[in-house]
Write a structure and sequence with these properties.
The complex is a heterodimer of chains A (111) and B (119).
Chain A (H helix, E strand, L loop, with lengths): L3 E3 L2 E5 L4 E7 L6 E7 L5 E8 L4 E4 L2 E6 L4 E6 L8 E8 L6 E3 L3 E6 L1
Parallel strand pairs in A: 2-11
Antiparallel strand pairs in A: 1-3, 3-8, 4-5, 4-9, 6-7, 7-8, 9-10, 9-11
Chain B lengths: L4 E3 L2 E4 L5 E6 L6 E7 L6 E7 L2 E5 L6 E5 L5 E5 L8 E8 L14 E2 L3 E5 L1
Parallel strand pairs in B: 2-11
Antiparallel strand pairs in B: 1-3, 3-8, 4-5, 4-9, 5-6, 7-8, 9-10, 9-11
Classes of the chains: A mainly beta (111), B mainly beta (119).
């Protein structure tokens, strides 16, 4: 099956930018997603990018996609303590296809 | 805006018992997905339904079954529960084929999850 890899931990200081990286193996990916999960909570859709795009910006969030290298990143500008959570990268192949999740990156923001 | 509704939010069952989880998708969404997330794990796909028919199957144990009803809500039935079934169960919904667009991204929205504890 498809593989999605993420680094497990990232720590940043409040006000700095955070960059969370993800790699995937599925060459037929149509959409790639970023979800945020706070402790004991559900999966909140943050943003997504269509596979033919290379960048998408949404307020403090910037998604970069390098389709050739199958590399996706999420940049959070001006990171706040409220951004502390687990961030999941997810890959979706076919239009009705399941999402393949990475293991999640635990982002810790220090005041 | 209406979101995906799951019930119950918390459930405690004993080994070998049966549990049923319910999911109400976002209005007009015709596709439902079930995922299982163990402690410290990423969500694992179980099964999905499109227009009341099973559309995809993942790592769902034979002890589990699911269906989607005419009003598009879905139920996940789990029998002969084992300790290892303790997890957070997510339901998600989206619009299926024919309504995809770059604008919507055919996005998949998740519910808050149902916590199942098997003791």
């Amino acid at each position: 099956g498809e593989d999605v890899e993420q680094s497990l931990f990232l720590s940043v200081r409040e006000g700095d930018s955070s960059v969370i990286n993800c790699t995937y193996t599925d060459s037929s990916s149509t959409y790639l997603y970023w979800y945020k999960q706070e402790p004991g909570a559900g999966l909140q859709l943050l943003t997504y990018i269509f596979s033919n795009m290379d960048m998408k910006q949404d307020q403090r969030l910037t998604v970069l996609l390098n389709k050739k290298d199958k590399h996706l990143s999420l940049r959070i500008a001006d990171t706040q303590t409220g951004d502390s959570a687990i961030y999941f990268c997810a890959d979706r192949g076919s239009t009705l296809g399941r999402l393949y999740f990475g293991r999640g990156t635990q982002l810790t923001v220090w005041p | 805006a209406a979101g995906v509704i799951q019930s119950p939010r918390h459930l405690i069952k004993e080994k070998r018992e049966t549990a049923t989880l319910k999911c109400y998708p976002i209005p007009r969404h015709d596709t439902v997905y079930w995922y299982q997330q163990g402690p410290g794990q990423d969500p694992q796909f179980l099964i999905s339904f499109y227009e009341k028919m099973q559309s995809d199957k993942g790592s769902i144990p034979d002890r589990f079954s699911a269906q989607q009803f005419s009003d598009y809500h879905s139920e996940l039935n789990m029998s002969s529960l084992e300790l290892g079934d303790s997890a957070l169960y997510f339901c998600a919904s989206s619009l299926g084929l024919g309504r995809t667009s770059r604008r919507s991204g055919n996005t998949i929205y998740f519910g808050e999850g149902s916590w199942l504890t098997v003791v």
